[in-house]
Amino acid sequence: MGEHIPVLLNEVIANLNIKSDGVYLDFTIGRGGHSSHILSKLDKGYLIGFDQDITAIKESEINLSKINDKFTLIHDNFRHFEKTLEEKNITYVDGILMDLGVSSPQFDEGSRGFSYKEDAILDMRMNQEQDLTAEKIVNSYSLEELTRIFKEYGDEKFSYSIAKNIVKTRQNAPIRTTSELVEIIKRSKPMKVLAKEGHPAKQVFQALRIEVNDELNALTETIHKALKYLRPHGGRLAIITFHSGEDKIVKEIFKSYSITQGNRFDGPVLEKEKEYRLVNSKPIIATNEELDINHRSKSAKLRVIERK
């Protein structure tokens, strides 16, 4: 099983501006890659980590315990984080990290169905206790619904053709495995496209994963709530995205909280001072050194916002 290398690690730690007595939330604890570095900087501070994958919780518990005991891990989707803060009487936090990539071990564990390179049941659930799976989507969504999610969540040019072939294939027998789906995707694309670099199933698998885990809705909802919990005068929210749909959501929400919108042609604009500022106006991306050792950092973009 491949070791999970945390993406943009140095940039995340630098931009979270960690205080030794601060309270920090890691909404996607994974195996504790970023959090182990946050935790090592805490003295009187505290870290709360969330993950909907129980395996990730168990493994990060082991990894973080080697550093110190100033942390709590919660097995839940980050969209429910407020409940934990209320229980712990926490009003403000000093920093929040969201790393939206699927952790390497989830890809490496073929049976989870995230990878188009391993033959497995079409699952893709981050929380293995939920009902909706990729198999259910592929076998029950309409032609229109499948086309939409492949296009919106995967930027897939051949969304309609792939969806049409899925619907046609499942009339004979249900589509159950990743390899069956990969074959349908390959049949749906022209030879000249298949000859290009990159796996032909990548975008459809990404789209299914996002739909199974309701990722974009959870992201939108959570950012709005998270911003309210940042401590005034320096609390920061750092988000790493891995595809254009996620990055667009983060960029637009951050902009709406930090930049006054006004039309200069309508006379004077009553500018209400915004409570937040963008720490970086352009997203931070991986250095060439990082790209050499971790190919998964290629599409990563880090955006950071601070409460004034």
Question: If you had to describe this structure to a student in words, what would you say it looks like?
Answer:
By secondary structure, the chain is an alpha/beta fold. The protein folds into two domains: 9-105 and 215-307, Rossmann fold (3-Layer(aba) Sandwich), CATH 3.40.50; 128-212, Putative methyltransferase TM0872, insert domain (DNA polymerase, domain 1). It has 14 helices and seven strands. The chain has helices at 9-16, 33-40, 54-65, 81-87, 104-108, 134-140, 143-154, 159-170, 178-187, 191-194, 202-212, 215-229, 244-258, 288-293, and strands spanning 23-26, 46-51, 71-75, 95-99, 236-241, 276-278, 301-307.
Secondary structure: elements and pairs:
Blueprint: H1 9-16, E1 23-26, H2 33-40, E2 46-51, H3 54-65, E3 71-75, H4 81-87, E4 95-99, H5 104-108, H6 134-140, H7 143-154, H8 159-170, H9 178-187, H10 191-194, H11 202-212, H12 215-229, E5 236-241, H13 244-258, E6 276-278, H14 288-293, E7 301-307
Parallel strand pairs: 1-2, 1-4, 2-3, 4-5
Antiparallel strand pairs: 5-7, 6-7
Helix pairs in contact: 7-8, 7-11, 8-9, 12-13
